[in-house]
Amino acid sequence: MSRNEGHSWHQNLSMWQQICLMTSTLIGVGVLTLPRTTSSKLFEAGWIAPLIGSAGAFVSLWLIVKLSKRYPGETFIEYSHKVWGSASRPWVGKVFSLPWISIYLVYLYFSTAIVSRVFGEVVVTSVLWQTPLEAMLLTMFLLIFFLCMHEVEVVARVNELLFPFIILPLLFIALASFQKAEFGNLLPINHVSIRSMAEGVYEGIYSYSGFEIMFVFFAYAQKNTNKELAGFYSLLIAALLYMLIVVAGISVFGYEELQRVTWPTLELVKTTQVPGFILERLESAFLAVWVSAVFTTVANAFYVVVYSLRQLFRKGIWFQRIMAAVLLVPLFYFSLIPQNIPEVFQVASLLGLSSLFINLLIPVVYWVVILIRDMMSKREEKDVDG
Amino acid sequence: MSQFFQAWQKRKEALQSKALEQYTNKSMESVSDVTLTTNVEENIQLIEAQFGKCDDLVVRRFQTKSKAQAAIVFIDGMVDRNVISDFIIRYMTTPDITYHDPATNELDLTDKLRQIVRNILSGCAVLIIDGCQNAYLNNTRGWDRRSVEEPQTESVVRGPRDGFCETLCVNAALIRFRLKDPNLRVRHMVVGERTQTDIYVMYVDGIAYPPMVEEVIARIESVHVDSVLESGYIEQMIQDRRWSPFPQIQNTERPDKVVANLLEGKVGILVDGTPFVLIAPAVFSQFYQSPEDYYERFYIATLIRLIRIISISIALLLPSLYIAFSSFHPEMIPSRLVIAMAAGRSTVPFPSLIEALFMELAIEILREASVRLPGPIGPTIGIVGALVVGEAAVTAGLVSPVMVIIVAVTTIGSFASPSYSAAIAIRMLRFPVMFLAGMFGLYGIMLFLIVILIHLSSLKSFGVPYMSPLSPLNLTGMKDMFIRAPHHLLKTRPMMFHVQDKTRMREEDNRK
């Protein structure tokens, strides 16, 4: 109980903290473009995409929960050895699990870069015209670094505290913009083909990436909490908010107009007027509060990267701090590689695709391996018995 | 948990073995560890040798009724002279009185020179009699003390008017008087190798979490410093994070506040010589909660609490919001107001960041000056500073009128916090956020707030997360966080301090 170590009273994440972690990571820059991306393929029925997308995300999240339940108290990094290796030859597990771990970490690493970049672009193009993009990225990375100095429980608490700052502005914008909504824009519902439906869902999937951080954080969940339920609630919250935003976007602008707007959600904010409100145009305020949503997305992802490296090399908190500082420097340059906004969007949709790939592939492959091993060990038992 | 308990057990054992050595620390080591003899003059020489040629050490020699040589040794000014002459000397010399011992209310016998010297220094009169190796330690402490007065820093409209004073035993009695519970425990400690300051650690047995109490005691024991002149010395040496701008231990001048906190499972630390009592652990709600909240009806209490939260936010953010709006986001301000603001600023030669920094600095100087000024002149400076300088600065075109309003509101807002040391933290943090607002506008303010939130989330005071019950979220605790729920809903004590006895109010005893 020394001054430096802190106490172990609150080390476990409560269900509410898990929900906050997941939801705040899910909701990031995707929301700013969501009405456009979903309605580009689904037209009037764009709001269906987040609903179906969330179902897909839930399947993947459910598999992740099951994995963490099979290896309670262990992160993805820790149980990967056990899935791939055997007790007699531990190096086998290490070698075979390494590609999966590195895919996972590299993906999270680059998603940090691209999300920061998108946010920097939004702020620089719409609010702080004279601020260089580099300054935005640098300040965001410094913020991320500051979070990475701390332990897991601090990350959970920060997400918990920022949660209302993420949910409330979105709710406010969505509800306030219904003053100008023309619900005729949402009709007709039924002229969408299955093919365009699938494409639309794929467009919306990028906005659901982020829950893969729970590969690590579920290990620190309290033992008696229902992780499936936590995952369900957080996806439900995100899906409802996304749906509200898309409905608001389509009903205010109509889907044709949405295609010509870079940041439709920001345009929604601009059209919002609150009678008697002392502030006239809200987009600066919205983007300022939106920093917290973006921060929780990028910082959680980056935290998972450095924390996983710390676990991989079995080092302490100081290793994590140094790694965070070291890894952020190249990240700064990576995030500056795309030359303009269309290129950023290209990379972002590529990343969305890879998130779908990673989120579904890793849990499925892991489960297949586990089930095969279970069958083999049962057969061996039978052989021994026989 | 079990690890934690083992550590606690170990510490407890170590404490018990150390308990006896508490009185012997460094400055007392210069006093030779000898025992008295049976000869009075030799003993007097022994004691005087320890004090050197000290002129306020009084030695009064006399003959007892049984014709034995005797002497009384004490320090002038620290004792009640009437007690010495009436109840020690007269009792020992008048043959009619058959009572043998001095008639003081606290009497101890010892032949250890160290203990004698320490007791003389804390105001005892020591009686030595020829032929007797033990000396009588009479408690005759009686120096001039300030009486119990209304606390200066924490006034309330409704609530008790008495505050702590500088004397430890009076302060302890003020707490005992309100909490007539035999489970109220007092642990006496001595800190300060030269000042030998007495410290009481108070807690309610059966409510306070024992490892937490032990942790407080262990940390105080680990303090090795030559002087403890105020409880701030202890506070700064036992707090969890020494580099944090936030106070992690609460201080108060109000006995009712200490009692309320003891009943929530916290620990009170009373230091001799100061009216400020420490309360550990502290959480963020200390910034805006006042004992008055519980005395007024809950609608009013909740409203006032919300007003305090708003005024603290104003004190922290208003100047930086002005900077951000005026230099980065003028489109957010309604157009009529922006024209008025621009007109006011048209003669101002500086950017709004410099203007705001200049005015904030001026108001901080004024505030500091008015604290130092002698009583009658203080208000004058306030009027001169606020009215004359402010008005003249606007007329001269150095600052805009809006800036004067903002600085004034900010200053008033920072006074609304019931805790002075918490308000200082807010005052201090106002300056970095102004710089960030000058660089990045609203984005800069948000960056700063997130940094502060991360820091607050990582803070712990004696194992209790600083932002609890907000994070980790505890819905029962939220009843007494931003709002103050009616008393009949506050049936349990706050859980975050790991209270042992959770019930504050039993169901069946109360009118439904």
Automatic annotation (TrEMBL), chain A:
The chain crosses the membrane at residues 12-34, 46-65, 95-115, 127-149, 161-178, 205-221, 233-255, 285-306, 318-336, 348-372. It is a multi-pass membrane protein. InterPro entries: Spore_GerAB (IPR004761). The keyword Transmembrane helix applies. It is found in: Membrane. One of its GO terms (cellular component) is membrane. Keywords: Germination, Membrane, Transmembrane, Transmembrane helix, Transport. One of its GO terms (biological process) is spore germination. The keyword Membrane applies. Belongs to the amino acid-polyamine-organocation (APC) superfamily. Spore germination protein (SGP) (TC 2.A.3.9) family. This is Germination protein BB. It comes from Brevibacillus formosus.
From TrEMBL, chain B:
Keywords: Membrane, Transmembrane, Transmembrane helix. InterPro entries: Spore_Ger, UPF0353/GerABKA_families. The keyword Membrane applies. Pfam families: GerA (PF03323). GO terms for cellular component: membrane. The keyword Electron transport does not apply. GO terms for biological process: spore germination. It comes from the Bacteria. The chain crosses the membrane at residues 306-325, 380-399, 405-426, 433-456. PANTHER family: LEUCINE ZIPPER PROTEIN 4, SPORE GERMINATION PROTEIN. Belongs to the GerABKA family. This is Spore germination protein.
